[in-house]
Amino acid sequence: MSFVRFAVRRVAEMAATLLTASFVVFGAMYLAPGNPASFLLAGRSASPEALASINAQYHLDDPFLVRYFRWLGDVLQGDFGRSITYRTDVSRLLADRLPTTLLLIVMSLVVVVAVGLLLGRIAAVRGGATDSAVLVTTTFAVGTPSFVAAVLLQGLFAVNLGWFPSSGAGDGGLGDMLWHLTLPSVALALYLIGMLARVTRSAMLEALDSDHVTVARSRGVPERQVVRRHVFRNSLGTVLTTGGLIVSTLLVCTILVETAFSIGGIGQLLELSTTTKDFPTVQAISLIIVALFMAVNLVVDLLLPLVDPRVTLGTRSAAV
Amino acid sequence: MTTTPPRTGRRFRGQRGQRGRLRPVAAAATAVLTAASLLAACSGPPKEKAGGVTDVRLSVSTPEAAGEIDSFTWAVYAEPPTLDYTVAFDYPQNTVLSNVCESLMRWTPGLTTEPGLAQKASNPDPTTWVYDLRPGVRFHDGKEMTADDVVFSLGRQRDPDNAAAWAQVFQNVASITKTGPLQVTVKLGKPDSQFPQYMATAAGVVVSKAAVEAAGKDYGTTGGLGCTGPFQLGTWNKGQSIELQRFDGYWGTKAKSKKAVFRVLTDPSARTNAMLSGEADGGYLIPTESYARLKSSGTGTLYFGEGLSTVNVNVTNMRGPLGDIRVRRALSLALDRSGFVKAGLGGAGTVTNSLTTRAAWAAAPERTLKTAFDSLPPTGQDIEKARALVKEAGADGKTLTVATSSIGQDVSLLATAVQAAGTRIGLDIQLKTIAPNAFTALFTDPQAREGIDMFPLTYYDSITDPLDLLQNFRTGAYMNFAGYSDPGYDKLVDEASAVYPVEQRMDIEAKLQHHASEQLLWIPVAEWPTALFMNKRITGAPTTISYMYYPWAADVGAAQ
What we know:
Chain B: Residues 113-478 form the Solute-binding protein family domain. Chain B: It holds the Pfam family SBP_bac_5. The structure holds 2 protein chains of 2 kinds. Chain A is mainly alpha-helical. Helix content of chain A is 76%, strand content 0%. Helix content of chain B is 28%, strand content 22%. Chain B has helices at 24-38, 91-97, 147-158, 195-198, 209-215, 268-277, 291-296, 325-334, 337-344, 366-373, 383-392, 409-424, 436-439, 441-444, 467-470, 487-498, 502-519, and strands spanning 69-76, 105-107, 113-115, 118-125, 128-133, 173-180, 183-188, 231-237, 241-246, 257-264, 282-284, 300-315, 350-351, 399-404, 428-433, 454-460, 522-535, 538-539, 557-558. In chain B, the strands form 5 sheets. In chain B, strands 1, 8, 9, 10, 11, 12, 13, 16 and 17 form a 9-stranded mixed sheet that branches. A 4-stranded antiparallel sheet of chain B has the order 4-5-7-6, covered by helices on one side. In chain B, strand 6 and strand 7 form a beta hairpin. The two termini of chain B are 37 Å apart.
């Protein structure tokens, strides 16, 4: 498939997906109980005039489709609207909180990839007791929900040892933020480390059994080179295809980890905005999450042919 | 008003989605579904073992600060969405705002009302209130406060386009005018005994007209707040913390701390951990399950104070079995109140048969108290009698639904207690678990209350007047979810609203209290005190719920 055709198709698909997702989320919010106007009034009774005024300001009385298309039109012009709860522009709300969440996710991703690949690789190559040890630890890692991991890490490293802060994202520079986000990123990464280690291990074991590895060994290629060139590279494709799953897990679990550590990023904001039916905010965050999810898939599709010659652009290997 | 520190965490069960190539629609759906199933990987929080306390005594105050400190850090359970005083109607925003913005009147730590930015409030006739302002008061922007600022500030509360949470306080106000450079006159359509009391809450806040107009539509979320309090808004690190800085041009007693930092700690155990580790020096609204840990930690002191809060079972459906007063009485008789206080309130609370707290009646004479509190339905259990009542009402085996949620033990354990009580007296009580975020909708959306007969409700008064709660059973009142309507009751509410002399008014309120308690419109369960923790470094904060509208942080200073 030519690259141009591939690009056009992917962009069209992304646009269609974002549109569908925005419609689904908007519809779900619309059907959920509760009226944002009454949340705005914080459980006080309101005069009919005040309610009418809010409904008019935020167009809450308009029919569903009218509201949806008005929102869509604004978004296409780059206007994400005003948060009903926070009484400020959604773009500003997100700008304040997005960096924290992105840093947390990137930190977790680095930990997941580094540790997960390493564990999977040594388990496959060394076998024996090392393999068993890795299997046992990853079983624990996969079985520990990140919320539990958060509580355990907090108890041990923050409360008892006092090495790390127990919550928050810091308010100093980058160093302070990294220090604050260490425990949360580990809590977020734990489950995925286990998963990735297992995927890497089985993909490498499969590759170790393959014919060309046997051939390479018989030709006297040093074992290190065999592992690096043939085994590891061949298994990278499989590992890469789990990348999408990893990032989507990070995006979803960040909601709970942010809450456990009171980090106050996008995840927590999403949770709170859903609570108060803050349409513009929930819509914007959902779009960001779906867009990130798709962007990761795109990157995976672009990288796959580079690491796995058997895959051509736009087709996924059947190894998943 | 009602809120409990929310808790998060849900459990989802789901199949892991298979991944492959997807069509757009399917992709979007899968993204959502995968999200749901992935939550299994990071599912909800483990249950913390409840740690209650015994021997709870309410403290009137905490030791006075010995001297100044540079800064202290305070834990709050949520971030205020905005600090605009007109929508400040919940614990987190009021806890912060009370130190930055001041009102015409002032609520004291003893829960009485005294002059604030107005040095005198006079009532020349039943429908007129004249506020004479304190001269020489400066806003944080350096401008001097005038009558124009007051007219403007109260005007924002009344403007329907502004959707103020406090608008209802002004329902009887006909006009607010400047009658002198430092005098504002409020004309009422009819006498209103609640209005002058509310001028001590965020409803009576005075801001600088110039500052609000300069901030425009971002007022309350960025920049200064244009107020007069002992602290001014410093850096607001969104989602993280809010910093207040001492205002040196303050007209009253200067704050003892140069800085007060509010840390947003949404997770209850994170909040407790921060207080144990010293990351936070203290906090109000301590999670009940942490009472014991904090009390025995040795890092500081856990105080309890008067909270004007009662925990109740709010009856929302009178069209079902609960429409029969005998069933409501039976449930009340079967409820294990002391068991609930032990488990649900961490032992800090007292069982009650009254919808209002005793402290709300502080101004009432002894005989009125007798009328209000004597011969209310009993708090003790009488299963036999309750069972007989259910039979008599023909409700044996009838199903009732109580809503529950994981937002706090005061909710979840009360729902369980109601279920246990019902089971013992021949009722079939179903629990309907509602996600924490949907629980709030019970207050705001009749649709959300469909199919629910009752739900646990913690209610606090914003002023020291039982009418604040008792007016909820007036026909058409906002919290009157059961749609109760009794012309006699309504007439008494109107009477009480129109009577200014407090002793006379409370006589009427005692009748209301009796009526509401007899009818069991809500089933009262317990009085819930406020909890306050401060570590060994600091002292001085008030123990009572006055912290919602009183500049309490100015009193916090060094313990030694």
